[in-house]
Prior knowledge:
This protein is α+β, with helices and mostly antiparallel strands. 17% of the residues lie in helices and 32% in strands.
Amino acid sequence: MTLRSVSGGCGTALIALVLVVSVLLLTGCAGPWNPVRGTLSPTATPPASTTAVRSPAPEAVTDIFVSATSIELRDASGKTLSTFDYFQPASEVVAGLSQALGSAPILDNFEGRNDVPPTTRYEWGGFLLNDPLTGGMPPFSSNTWVRVSSEAVNGVRISTVDGIAVGDSAADLEARYPDTSFRHPLAGQSELHIGVGFVPLPPSDDYVGSELTFSVQLFARDPLGPITQLTTPSPNWGA
């Protein structure tokens, strides 16, 4: 198409109109501008997941079994979760028991009396861990020992490895263990003592001819009543 030159204001207006129409025609051929926001290109790397990975919950202790050699923590399936002995540092045993029983212990410093040395006591209700300040002398004297006066603490059951617990019938246990039971006069009445779970110790030059042992000792204030306390490891020097 040939455009003739037109002089004057009307010619200028005509040229401007032709230019505007040309721009509109070109824009229409290109299609409307309608970008899609937030769409990743096929080669883009998706953002890393921010979902936190949770660690599995620790297995809950449901039972504590005490013996003449150890304190064993088990779960509801009977699986052993931890084992502590009476010769390792008390701090390690305290940490394990605090986690198992769900609370820190009450701390008490016993000054000692008669033949009982000064002792640091860690108590969780009816479970008491004693740490004599004199220290242990392996294998004949332990670094710590326990006293149990409750069937359970914070929902965790406590018993010997063969299932004896505070509250069991003292008379039945005396009949079951006649050779290691004796009645001890105490404050005008007879207290029943029963030894179970004996573990032999190596011979000692100080006790020639004697069989040295550790055991779990059961106590009943009334021989016809319930067991009221367990202690372990209880040394027997052949007396």
